[in-house]
């Protein structure tokens, strides 16, 4: 079978299949179309307001599963939100605002039950990079603009942009970002208050012993609690299963346990003495209360300066495009990891993310996207529908209204320990060995992207990876692989040229060169058969090349046979008497006849 599109069975090759059912032309045919046709897509409104597709089938069993998953996720997202707000250089309440609105909005529009929208280390790092020491109003406007870009990408179905970011670059970007987050938090972990990048001597001289003890102790406890979920028992029994479930809950609640325990110790210490007496660095005071709904601050006064919208855009620069693209990349990657049946509506996920960010800007939230760690917690908690986000949002809202006065007692070093313990497991160094063995180009992309991320920033690292891989693609299109062989058919010999990859207009000159080289090598003694099955996008460049090659071959009395050439384009070549068309069946007949 030479080509799956044109194969023919000879009489002695056609063998009956086991258990096959045969029909004569006169018998009733099976209605295959009705049996195998694609299911009808839901109404446009149902696909966009996705809650309408599953709320009708919501029952008590799903509600209980979502309640458990929502509460579990709430205990995870609260300490993470506080820590990610600190990473972005903002006070704790802004992280909680982001967690609250993201969890609620995704319930109505999200398609993947496991996805948890809220503050993430990636978005916090983006905020830190583009809004460092800038007013909080600029962060809120960044969330609004990022949401608008994501909405536009969803409306115009620009999800294919993510396809230009290969897996190697994605892994390198995640690894580089995780290393940057960990390095940024080491100073807070050890109580170092120096700005910028200090010298090693200055760094060690400024380590605050009390903060270092608290931070390192919290970090080790978090690593130990993380291992509880993987504890195995020799014998399975109801008691061991319950104990295993208890250990799992303790493990996924480790961030909350560590942060709240440290905060309680600091609180009671201060109650017995004073703020000045405590030797560790605490978080800043947090404004309590539920966030108020208000328009994003497109114009505001900060210090002695008045900012208008154009000033804010200049301050944000490339962040207006980089932040939403990075958010979409992360969100789609997480959604793909948890989607069922491999069917993902990427446009709907982009629309949902855009709505979350735009709506979040009305609640003073930071830019947001999905978090893989929290999504994994949702999956392990048995989440059934996005309704779990309602319970998570209620828990976050309760924390905002009740617990915010106590957030100022949380040690900064404990939050840094939470961040470092979360991101170190996202550092993936396996590509160092795997890609080196399998694909050197991907290895160069991965290593270069990590280095550029660390040296010049995450957005430059991402841009480097995309541009480098586009160069690789262009080189492949410009130099496609061709297989040139002499073949024999009914005692007649011909030169067969077959592309081993898809051919676009960038590769036509290489084909022309190969045909000329083959003619020179074989002294114009044999006809040329060119396999056109992998020719893509027939345009004027293709047709001009084929006409020019046929003209050259005619002068040397060499026939050009185009194999598997599309019928709709034949009329543009019919005037040239030196061109013939053939498939597998007619090729031998044509060569013999010629």
TrEMBL record:
Domain SLC26A/SulP transporter: 65-447
InterPro entries according to UniProt: SLC26A/SulP_dom, SLC26A/SulP_fam
Membrane topology: Multi-pass membrane protein
Keywords, alphabetical: Membrane, Transmembrane, Transmembrane helix
Span of the signal peptide: none
Residues spanning the membrane: 67-88, 94-117, 138-165, 207-225, 246-270, 316-339, 351-373, 388-407, 444-477
A biological process from GO: transmembrane transport
Compartments in which it is found: Membrane
GO cellular component, one term: membrane
One Pfam short name: Sulfate_transp
PANTHER family the UniProt entry points to: SULFATE TRANSPORTER
Protein name: SLC26A/SulP transporter domain-containing protein
């Amino acid at each position: 079978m030479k080509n799956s599109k044109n194969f023919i069975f000879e009489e002695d090759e056609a063998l009956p299949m086991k258990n096959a059912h045969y029909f004569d032309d006169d018998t009733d045919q099976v209605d295959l179309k009705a049996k195998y046709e694609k299911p009808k897509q839901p109404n446009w409104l149902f696909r966009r307001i996705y809650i309408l597709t599953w709320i009708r089938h919501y029952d008590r069993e799903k509600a209980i599963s979502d309640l458990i998953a929502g509460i579990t996720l709430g205990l995870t997202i609260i300490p993470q939100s506080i820590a990610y707000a600190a990473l972005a250089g903002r006070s704790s309440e802004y992280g909680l605002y982001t967690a609250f609105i993201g969890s609620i909005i995704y319930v109505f529009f999200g398609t993947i039950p496991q996805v948890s929208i809220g503050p993430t280390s990636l978005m916090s790092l983006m905020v830190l990079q583009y809004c460092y020491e800038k007013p909080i109003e600029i962060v809120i406007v960044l969330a609004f603009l990022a949401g608008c870009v994501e909405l536009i990408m969803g409306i115009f179905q620009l999800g294919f942009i993510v396809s230009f970011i290969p897996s190697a670059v994605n892994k390198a970007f995640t690894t580089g970002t995780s290393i940057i987050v960990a390095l940024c938090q080491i100073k807070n972990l050890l109580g170092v208050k120096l700005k910028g990048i200090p010298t090693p001597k200055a760094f060690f001289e400024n380590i605050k012993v009390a903060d270092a003890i608290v931070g390192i102790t919290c970090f080790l406890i978090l690593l130990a609690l993380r291992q509880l979920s993987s504890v195995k028992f020799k014998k399975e029994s109801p008691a061991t299963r319950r104990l295993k479930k208890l250990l799992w809950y303790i493990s996924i609640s480790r961030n909350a346990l560590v942060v709240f325990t440290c905060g309680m110790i600091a609180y009671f210490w201060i109650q017995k003495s004073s703020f000045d007496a405590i030797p560790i660095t605490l978080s800043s005071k947090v404004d309590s209360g539920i966030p108020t709904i208000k328009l994003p601050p497109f114009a505001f006064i900060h210090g002695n300066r008045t900012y208008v919208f154009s000033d804010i855009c200049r301050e944000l620069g490339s962040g207006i495009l980089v932040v939403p693209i990075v958010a979409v990349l992360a969100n789609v990657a997480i959604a793909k990891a948890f989607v069922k049946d491999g069917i993902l509506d990427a446009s709907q996920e982009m629309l949902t993310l855009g709505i979350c960010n735009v709506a979040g800007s009305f609640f003073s939230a930071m830019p947001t996207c999905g978090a893989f760690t929290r999504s994994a917690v949702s999956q392990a908690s048995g989440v059934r529908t996005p309704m779990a986000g309602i319970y998570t949002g209620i828990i976050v809202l309760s924390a905002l209204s009740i617990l915010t006065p106590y957030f100022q007692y949380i040690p900064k070093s404990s939050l840094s320990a939470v961040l470092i313990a979360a991101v170190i497991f996202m550092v993936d160094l396996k590509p160092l060995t795997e890609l080196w063995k399998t694909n050197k180009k991907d290895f160069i992309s991965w290593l270069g992207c990590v280095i550029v991320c660390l040296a010049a920033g995450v957005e430059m690292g991402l841009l480097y990876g995309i541009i480098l891989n586009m160069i690789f693609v262009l080189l492949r299109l410009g130099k496609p692989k061709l297989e040139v062989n002499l073949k024999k058919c009914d005692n007649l010999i011909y030169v067969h040229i077959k592309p081993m990859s898809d051919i676009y207009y960038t590769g036509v000159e290489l084909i022309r060169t190969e045909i000329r080289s083959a003619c020179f090598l074989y002294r114009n003694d044999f006809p040329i058969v060119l396999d056109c099955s992998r020719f893509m996008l027939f345009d004027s460049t293709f047709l001009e090349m084929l006409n020019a090659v046929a003209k050259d071959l005619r002068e040397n009395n060499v026939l050009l046979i185009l194999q598997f050439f599309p019928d709709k384009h034949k009329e543009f070549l019919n005037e040239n008497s030196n061109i013939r068309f053939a498939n597998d069946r007619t090729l031998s007949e044509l060569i013999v006849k010629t």
